Amino acid sequence: MSAIIKIKPLGFTWETSDPFLFCAYHEDNYPRGNQNLGPNESLEGRNIGQDFILKDGWRMYHGDKVPGFPAHPHRGFETVTIVQKGLVDHSDSLGAAGRFGNGDVQWMTAGKGVQHSEMFPLLHTEKDNPFLLFQIWLNLPRDKKMVPPHFKMLWNEEIPKISISDNLNNDTEITLIAGTLEQYTASAPAPDSWAKNPDNEVVIWTIKMAPNASYSFPTASEGINRSLYFFKGKEVMSDGYTIPSNHEIILNANKEFTIKNGDTEAHFLLLQGKPINEPVVKQGPFVMNTQMEIRDAIREYQQTEFGGWPWPSYDHVHDKTKGRFALYPDGTEIKK
Fold first, then answer.
1. How many structural domains does the chain have?
2. Which domain holds residue 254?
3. How do residues 103-161 score in pLDDT, each as one tens digit?
4. Do the beta carbons of residue 17 and residue 23 sit within 8 Å?
5. Model pLDDT for residues 171-190, shown as the tens digit of each residue
6. Is 156 in a helix, a strand, or coil?
7. Pairwise CA distance, residues 142 & 282, whole Å
């Protein structure tokens, strides 16, 4: 029996299976930056505030000077933000902040409620600012939806990267953001995460395959959801299928699965986990179990703004001279 259940094309946002909610994929070839850390090009012709059209190879999203997502609330789930290229400036209603990217990952538990902004500063003024980001929404079970908000950084230098050669010495490189592989274990996720319990078999990997490389995935338990997102490359082969890029491969996690790459380097995201199997009610930035809990979230946000906004603007960016750093709510600052 084939390990492949279904193959389907990727949309603007990627559909996911329980315990994940969805994955946003942003790749933008930003131009040189200006003195305000925005693009050094005219914004004429863009729908500023709602710019999701890939004009000239890049988008402003909800930003009007700097690309990105100004302050917005979340409740009831987690965001795992993987920045392969470029930088993100984080600011939140807890007073926490950070600048991370070029391989770093931020793991944020929204829990009972937090506001945060995610802006994409264009620091390079003499060259282009390429950008590639995944943001994965990972659900929280009912008993964790109202935990205190939390964020932690998985710095690029500390994330395990494993290179595996096939019998023709073609390499597959796997970056472990969550889960285990052979004797390697990813950095610990946020403390209230569904991924914290190894019995839930949550895996988040990014994978890079050399041309013509083959790789056999380890099996997981029966009932585990697994999807492989082929987002860059030409084509791969498996179980008699030839699969072009920009497709999701939905898999039986407990079946052996080997993939062979074509003649171009290929890139993938692997998401896997035990389903939470609870009702999911989503409305915008809130994910709860019932419609009444959604109404409660909206009412509480209107009344409290989840602690308000302590920064000078909703699209706050950090000083151009700042390097990568994380400032936590207790005042602890880590610089990289």
1. 2
2. 1-12+162-277
3. 999 999 999 999 999 999 999 999 999 999 999 999 999 999 999 999 999 999 999 99
4. no
5. 999 999 999 999 999 999 99
6. helix
7. 14
